[in-house]
């Protein structure tokens, strides 16, 4: 996972947050959240601590893994 520093906050360009109140973390390979109609290009990168917590990952439904 790539990490970028923003003061005390670490974010990663590998994930982004949509506008959903839960399960808002999307992989960078996903461009759109159908739940809240957010697009990756308009959204902020996810915080590393939230990604590492493993909570709030959106169910992408088509994860090849
Ligand atoms: Zn969403």
N/C terminus separation: 16 Å
Secondary structure tally, helices: 1
Percent range of helical residues: under 10%
Strand percentage lies at 25-35%
Shape: globular
Secondary-structure element string: EEEEEEH
Mean pLDDT: 92
Question: What would you call the quaternary organization?
Answer: single chain
What is the gyration radius calculated from CA atoms? Answer: 11 Å
Give the cofactors and ligands.
zinc ion
Q: Are there runs of 5+ residues with pLDDT below 50, and where?
A: none
Number of strands: 6
For the largest beta-sheet, the strand count, sense and barrel status come to: 4 strands, antiparallel
Structural class of the secondary structure composition? Answer: mainly beta
The overall number of domains is 1
Structure in words:
This protein starts with a strand and ends in a 12-residue tail after the last helix. 9% of the residues lie in helices and 34% in strands. The strands form two sheets. Strands 1, 2, 3 and 6 form a four-stranded antiparallel β-sheet that branches. Strands 4-5 form a two-stranded antiparallel ribbon. The model has no long low-confidence stretch (mean pLDDT 92). The radius of gyration is 11 Å and the shape is globular. It has 65 residues and is mainly β. The protein has one domain. Bound molecules: zinc ion.
Summarize the topology.
Elements: E1 4-6, E2 9-17, E3 25-27, E4 32-33, E5 38-39, E6 45-47, H1 48-53
Antiparallel strand pairs: 1-2, 2-3, 2-6, 4-5
The structure holds zinc ion (ZN).
Zinc ion (ZN) binds at residues 18-20, 24, 33, 35-36, 38.
């Amino acid at each position: 996972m790539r990490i970028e520093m923003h003061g005390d906050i670490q974010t990663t360009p590998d994930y982004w947050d949509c506008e959903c109140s839960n399960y808002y973390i999307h992989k960078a390979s996903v461009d759109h959240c159908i739940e809240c109609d957010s697009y990756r290009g308009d959204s902020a990168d996810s915080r590393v601590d939230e990604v590492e917590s493993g909570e709030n990952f959106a169910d992408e439904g088509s994860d090849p893994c």
